[in-house]
Amino acid sequence: MPTSKRSSKPRSKCGKESERGAALVEFALIACMMMVILAGIVDYALFLQAAFQVQEAAAAAAQYAAIPGNQDMSVPATQTATQNWAIQAATSTTTAGVTNFQATAINTWKCAATGSNVTYSTSCTNGTPVEFVQVTTQGTFTSVLQFPGLPTTLTLHGIAIYPVPWTQPAG
Question: SS3 helix, strand, coil % of the chain, rounded to 5?
């Protein structure tokens, strides 16, 4: 009767035991890549927040300037107050790293919302010219991270144009 002889030598390691170290190496490589991607997402989110902030500052200042009595940008005090309003709106919530913030305000008159600019004394075929206040803002965003080939600072711009409500002159 044939008997089977079993070898008393240990079998070679194969299967899951030989892959223990490989899983650790793969995790280390993937974790590093994921951290770089996550850092890029966070930096882009900060950029978006800064861009929205600069635009919102322009809108807030234009709303302020469109209030009857605040819109005459030929008066230096009104121009300064509008610019200060924009700066206050931009810096009161600054968490995204906007620096070198600037704001300018002007008023324009148009015969229609899409028409070309005219003077306030121009007579329009559809009535009197409509007055608009335009506030332009600008700020510099500095990236938290520095990626090769990408700029570390970006200039952000915001613009808002609001119509001034017509009020009947006193008299």
Answer: 40, 25, 35
Give domain limits for the chain: 17-163
Cα 1 from Cα 101, distance rounded (Å): 97
Q: Are 105 and 135 in contact, with CB atoms under 8 Å apart?
A: yes
pLDDT in tens, 103-144: 888 877 787 666 777 776 667 777 777 778 888 889 899 888
How many angstroms separate the CA atoms of 75 and 105, rounded? 11
- Specify the pTM: 0.69
DSSP strand E in the chain: where?
A: 98-110, 117-118, 130-142, 153-163
Q: What is the Cα–Cα distance from 109 to 73, expressed in whole angstroms?
A: 12
